Amino acid sequence: MDQALGSPAHQALIAHVVAHYADDDRIRAVAVFGSVGADTWHELSDVDFDVVTEDGARVDPGAEIAALFGPRAVIVLAGADAADVVLDSREELSVRWHPLRTTSPNTGATVRVVAGCLSAANLVAAGDGNRSRPDQARRLDAIVRDAIYAQKALARGKRWEAVAAVERIRRSLTDLRGRRDGLRLDPADPAGALATVLAEVQTDYDLGLQRRALLGSQDPDGSPGT
């Protein structure tokens, strides 16, 4: 690891996972991505782990978490190749175990290899090989739909519904870009968050006349636009 990642608590969690897999012949690399990998973390951020295995290695996510954390893992939501975990300290983490060839393209922008024989460039290249072109028109339609929903929610005083719509816009933007936006939005100001994320969308994408007209037909407070 070229430099410390995250808070002291994050670093301790990363060191624990690295030490656990240090002598495991199944494991080719342990990497971290997301906010901790991008150095945009908060003290309360979770840690996203990407564990690259040898081809054909057998991994049972539930058993892996039990071996890693024992009774400290209070909540374990395990899938076929991944698990989301809450520890007794209320720390949160996610882990995915996979061979290099199935690396997700969504990790590439923030991935940092913390142990193993592979480099971040190896993971980025593998992920890029699995990247499919998003349906841009469909994603932009979804963004505008959710923006209008957020505007209407604000007009009705349903601020949390507006916040949820802003998060859906961010997910659509992530799908388009293949990476997270890195914005620090304030959920206490959903109108400001909506304006910020829409400006971010329009930095890279032309919404077109019809979509822009729909967005401009209402101000964030729900009143007709000027």
Write a concise synopsis of the structure shown:
This protein is of the alpha+beta class and 226 residues long. The chain has helices at 8-21, 34-38, 61-69, 120-129, 136-155, 159-177, 190-204, 208-216; strands at residues 27-33, 47-53, 73-78, 82-87, 92-99, 112-116.
CATH superfamily of the largest domain: Beta Polymerase, domain 2
Overall outline: globular
Q: Helix share of residues?
A: 40-55%
Largest sheet: 6 strands, mixed
- Strand line-up in the sheet with most strands: 3-4-5-2-1-6
Topology, number of strands: 6
Mean of the pLDDT scores? 92
Q: Segments where pLDDT lies below 50 for 5+ residues?
A: 219-226
H-E order: HEHEHEEEEHHHHH
Any idea what the CATH architecture of the largest domain is?
A: 2-Layer Sandwich
Radius of gyration: 20 Å
